[in-house]
Every structure is written in C-alpha cells, then in structure tokens.
Sequence to fold (330 residues):
Amino acid sequence: MPNKVLVCGGAGYIGSHTTLALLEKGYNVIVADNLETGYRDAVSEGAALFEGDLRDYNFIEKLLKDERPDAVIDFAAYSLVGVSYADPLKYYENNVCGTRNLLEAMKKNEIGHIVFSSTAAVYGNPKSIPIKETDETTPINPYGETKLAIEKMLKWVDAANGIKYTALRYFNASGAHPSGKIGENHKPETHLIPNLLKAALTGEEMTLYGTDYNTPDGTCIRDYVHVCDLADAHILALENLFKTGTSATYNLGNTGGFSNRQILNTAEIVSGVKIRYKEAERRPGDPDILIASSEKIRQELGWEPRFNSLEEIIKTAFLWHKNNPFGYSR
Fold:
C-alpha cells in the first residue's frame, strides 16, 4: 500500500476533501496546486502544500524527484463546460498538456500509480440510462473531450511505460464535509446546489438554466454524488491499484438522478426559505439526462456511498455555506 500520496489540485473542491480523507486514514499527503481556483485554507493541516502548475514541467518533475511520493491522485483541471466552448485551446493546454507533463515526470522518477479524476461528460448524450463503463464515449463539449483524451493517454502510457491508472468518471460532486471544515467555493460559482443555497441565505435571485429538456419536469437530470463519497472512492481505487497492479475505469454514481427542480425544492426544504429564481435558456453542451451505473466499482472495490439521500447531501452543503458566507480567503 502507498504511504506518501501527491494530490494534484488538492486545494480545490474534490481534491481538498480527498486530502482530508487521506490524512484521516494515516497517509502522508502532499498537495500541488497553482491556487488559480483552489484555496490555501482548503488544504487541511498536516498536508504540505507546494504552489505550482502542472503546465510547468520543471516544477512537477522537481517536486516528484524531491518528495518521492508512492502514487498520485490527479484533480488538476479546468471543468466548466461553457468556458470550454468559448476557449477550447485553453482547456487542452491546461488539462491535457498538464497531465502529459505529470506523466512524463512520473515516468522519469519511476512513480507507477495514478488515480485520475475523469467525468461522465466523456459519454456525451448517452444512448441508454444508466450509463455503463462499456458504453460509447462521444463527448459533446471540449471539456469532456479533454478528459477522454487523457484517459486514452493513460492507456497508452500504461502499455508503453507500465504506469498503472484508475480513471473515475463522475458528474455532479456535491455536498461538503459534515464537520463544516471544508466545502464548495468556486468563483464564479456555476454549480446549482451552492447557488441555490447562497440565494436562500442572501435573498438574491438565482438562475435556473433550461426548462425545455426532454424530462418529466423540463429541467435536466443529473447524478449527484457526495464529495466525501467521491473521496472514499479515490482512496479505494488507489489501494486497489497497489493490490492488483491492474488499470481500470469506473463510474461513480448514486444509483439515481435528480432534476434541477427537485434540487430546488429540496434546497427550500433544507433551508426553510422560498428561493427566488428566474428561468433562462439551457447552456450549450448539456445532455438531458446523465445517470451513471456504479455497479462495477461497488462489486469490484466494495464502494458504498454513505450519503444516499438528496436531503443529506444538501444539508452538509448548507452547513458549510451558512458557516462560511464569504467562502475561503486566498
């Protein structure tokens, strides 16, 4: 089993929760983050933070050489679908080129295990629901394309250089650590749950994008997975890599999906506030329904989400936003 783990993007939302989960399990954790979208305050005490960018090969190569981690978990990526449409080259440079540098540095320093944070966006408009790992991958936005490109790169680097990987495909990370220590804090915030809760706490009006989807209530349906359950899955995947030495790809889902209106209604119940909102056109590149089958990771790795209900998920997020109305400082 690994002892020291490098978490790239560990000052971000999912990365910070995985860093804390690793520390709680007794791992030695180092974090690499350029703090463009991450926050120092999100990195838990006990983890060493190295500020730098994966696009800077010299930075990541020196870090691996000096620190000698046993394995890497990679969250470092841009992830906004709309922005990826507007500037696809920026997404390819950061996501694909950054991970390419990371893999090159891993090869040079003989670090042979990586867990990669992928996305259900690699599937595009799925032909069947729930989505299985064997389903066709045809992304409909540049963000999904960059993640799929990295998955293919991992496959060939494994074949050529023996770097073993696990790619985890999930869509909507949600919630916050139950302690309220860390949570979701993007600037600008584009995710539905935090925007709903901020509107509940401030009385401001939020925007509900898309009411003409081919779904029962006209709003898109997504698979929401609690961020702590995602963190657990990354650690299980890492430990399995060392145990089996076999590369794999897994979906992470909560067995069901929720529409945006269901999210809105539950946020009102949790907050006790009637949330003000306006309707707007759907954003480009968003499929009607995305629900991932997670049977494979449940059967093979024994992953079981601890936060199964939408109300549980939103309660943890509400606690974070109520306790941290201004988010993290830089």
